[in-house]
Amino acid sequence: GAVVSQHPSRVICKSGTSVKIECRSLDFQATTMFWYRQFPKQSLMLMATSNEGSKATYEQGVEKDKFLINHASLTLSTLTVTSAHPEDSSFYICSARDSWQGHGYTFGSGTRLTVV
Amino acid sequence: GESVGLHLPTLSVQEGDNSIINCAYSNSASDYFIWYKQESGKGPQFIIDIRSNMDKRQGQRVTVLLNKTVKHLSLQIAATQPGDSAVYFCAENLNAGGTSYGKLTFGQGTILTVHP
């Protein structure tokens, strides 16, 4: 079945630095990927929709200059958290849309970001 | 819109019991619904899905019921096992006809704990 690989699984960074998270579709091409953020004991909140070869579409309230998304190929989307602050600490999850799969979405295993 | 939960509701059951997890969705125009299981520190795992032209769908040990009149979904797990302990989310999708999938919006989620 469809597999989405997300890397790194955990990262700790200092305030003010930037962190890049990668999301790869391993056995299918994903023209569209989605980035979610999840705080402890809460639901997944959609941050943005990443489209291959074009600009990402951000949800209301998500700062596009802070959360940079690049979808340069059909198998890779990256999320860069710029100038990270402790309040950006969260669980970030990507998903890829695979139209060949019956249910259309496959999720990565998530990235636990801790900003100190 | 997206769900923002402060604390997830919980459901505790004994091993072997049947579990019913409920979800209210937000958009009456959503035409595709998915139930996900999320274990601690991992991404969501697909359980079962249903389209809006159906009221019920069964899988292995799981059944999803859809009531469009009151915008309600339920997930029934038969003979619940300790390995079923996790957080369960419903998700809704607008305009998922054919292979065209839009963004997925997640519900609040329910923590299921199964006691041996």
Describe the structure.
Chain A is built from no helices and 11 strands. Chain A has 116 residues and is an all-beta fold. In chain A, strands 2, 4, 5, 6, 9, 10 and 11 form a 7-stranded mixed sheet that branches. In chain A, strands 1-3-8-7 form a 4-stranded antiparallel sheet, with no helix packed on it. In chain A, a hairpin with a 7-residue loop joins strand 9 and strand 10. The radius of gyration of chain A is 13 Å and the shape is globular. The model of chain A has no long low-confidence stretch (mean pLDDT 92). Chain B is globular, with a radius of gyration of 14 Å. Chain B has strands at residues 10-14, 19-24, 30-38, 45-51, 56-58, 62-67, 72-77, 86-94, 104-106, 110-115. In chain B, strands 1, 3, 4, 8, 9 and 10 form a 6-stranded mixed sheet that branches. In chain B, strands 2-7-6-5 form a 4-stranded antiparallel sheet, with no helix packed on it. With 116 residues, chain B is an all-beta fold. Helices cover 0% and strands 52% of the residues of chain B. In chain B, strand 3 (30-38) and strand 4 form a beta hairpin. Classes of the chains: A mainly beta (116), B mainly beta (116). Chain A binds chain B through residues 4, 6, 32, 34, 36, 41-46, 49, 59, 91, 93, 95, 97, 99-100, 102-110, 112, and chain B through 2-8, 32, 34, 36, 41-46, 49, 89, 93, 96, 99-101, 103-109.
In percent, how helical is the residue content of chain B?
Answer: under 10%
What is the SS-derived class of chain B? mainly beta
Q: Major sheet of chain B: size, sense and barrel closure?
A: 6 strands, mixed
Proportion of residues in extended strands of chain B? over 45%
Query: Could you state the order of secondary-structure elements of chain A as H and E?
Result: EEEEEEEEEEE
How does the SSE layout of this entry go?
The complex is a heterodimer of chains A (116) and B (116).
Chain A: E1 4-7, E2 10-13, E3 19-25, E4 32-38, E5 45-51, E6 57-58, E7 67-73, E8 76-81, E9 90-97, E10 105-107, E11 111-115
Parallel strand pairs in A: 2-11
Antiparallel strand pairs in A: 1-3, 3-8, 4-5, 4-9, 5-6, 7-8, 9-10, 9-11
Chain B: E1 10-14, E2 19-24, E3 30-38, E4 45-51, E5 56-58, E6 62-67, E7 72-77, E8 86-94, E9 104-106, E10 110-115
Parallel strand pairs in B: 1-10
Antiparallel strand pairs in B: 2-7, 3-4, 3-8, 5-6, 6-7, 8-9, 8-10
